[in-house]
Specification:
- This protein is α+β, with helices and mostly antiparallel strands.
- It has two domains: 65-69 and 302-471, v583 fold, CATH 3.90.1700.10; 72-290, Enterococcus faecalis V583 domain (Enterococcus faecalis V583 fold, Alpha-Beta Complex).
- The protein has 16 helices and 19 strands.
- It has helices at residues 13-21, 39-51, 60-74, 85-88, 111-123, 130-139, 197-221, 226-234, 245-263, 269-277, 283-297, 359-363, 374-379, 385-394, 422-428, 457-471; strands at residues 8-10, 27-29, 77-84, 96-99, 143-146, 152-153, 160-161, 165-171, 177-181, 224-225, 308-314, 317-322, 330-333, 338-341, 354-355, 399-408, 414-420, 434-439, 447-453.
- The strands form six sheets. The chain has a five-stranded mixed beta sheet with strand order 6-9-8-3-10. It has a four-stranded antiparallel beta sheet with strand order 13-12-11-15.
- A hairpin with a 2-residue loop joins strand 11 (308-314) and strand 12 (317-322).
- Helix 8 packs across helix 9 (245-263) and helix 15 crosses helix 16.
Amino acid sequence: MSDSLHIAALGVDAFDRAFEETSTPFIHLDWRPPAQGDTDLVDILFNIETKLVDEKGESLVQKANKEAYTRICKGQPVLKRLRPAHECIPGMTKKSIFHAGPPVRWEDMCGPMRGAYIGALKYEGLAATDEEAERLMASGEITYGPNHANRCVGPMTGMISYSMPLWEVVNETYGNTAYCTINEGIGKVMRFGANGPEVIERLKWLEKVFAPAMDKALVRMGGLNLKNIAAQSLAMGDEMHQRNVAASLNFYKAICADFAEVLKDDPNGPAIVEFLVKKNEQFFLNLAMAMGKALLDAARDIPYSTIITCMSRNGVDFGINVSGLGNEWFTAPCLKPKALYFPGFTEDEANPDMGDSAIVECYGIGGFAMGAAPAVVRFVGAGGLADALEYTRSMGRITYGPNPDLAMPNVDFAGVNTGIDIRKVVATGLLPVINTGVAHKLPGVGQVGAGIVTPPMDIMVQALKAFAKKYL
């Protein structure tokens, strides 16, 4: 028998420090009590595992989650058109305006969201002034609600109004369709709550000039598979939430021949190409969001599935949907990102997190794929390459499995971690990591930083308890 000590330290950092100070060899095991030691949650997790089984004793939840994961991975998201919102959303009228995140009342909206609604009303010609727009919103004449309820997504405030052009992405494997707006570029933009004349002018240019030309090019080429672009861009250092440099250029490369043919006699051609290629490195973000929405919607409404199909924020509340629980929202107050702020701004000026863009993390890119995008880590204040790799690898503990179609070369060609499972989140205490832009809390100021944020754990617990109530 050896006289030497073999020490394993379980979870408590204070033990590690004591051993380090005495130069005592040890192994650290990153262990914590399941479900943060909450015995009620432990019982739910145990009962889900032992009671929800078929006649062969196989887990109904695991089979359902495999189905959800398979649908997400096998989907083929093909960009088909760029059409006005009222042509895409059944029953939409001039007085229908939709927003990012779970439902929120006008009187409860954050500053940027209120500013964006004012701008959308002016853009649609329904109000001439801010005051007139505010009265119209308060009157109850405007129909509003979540983009997700209309097969849509939008970044930050997520405004979608009657005349706005929407990217149309068809999941050719399962037949469902998803939509997203065009990325406006940088500066004062409606997604951050700006609503001045220059914002309206840019939106009108996108509607009247850019969108018709792009739609003609897409029709001419017969559609574009966005998953192929995403896979190529991961290999080039993008994660497609906060970094879309390669993806935006890859998109342009894919459509440039047909676009050139469409634009050859168009006097607006140079301005259109300049906007797409030179002025908007985040251009592909909105396409990645529409891709994620098309893929995740195919995994909705699978009985017994605990896979998250939507994570979204409205600047007040963070909400999720879970496949086996349909379209029911589970919400809690949004957190502020842990961010790196632009010069002149501080956390006190930041709005809590917002936007539908966390749909990309549901798919496994964005914050989940920072290990593939080292350049984004400094931008969001997330440390160094080792931290990025740890973020990516840790997400494997709360997801169903790697996506074979989206490999990360500098993470040993592992596929991105896909299919967030609320059981694993609650059991491990590890929350999904989202990298995100940070908006100023006042409308119109714009982006003031970028950082890392997570959902509040409470929504995961709510969803797990609702799942238990429905199925146990």
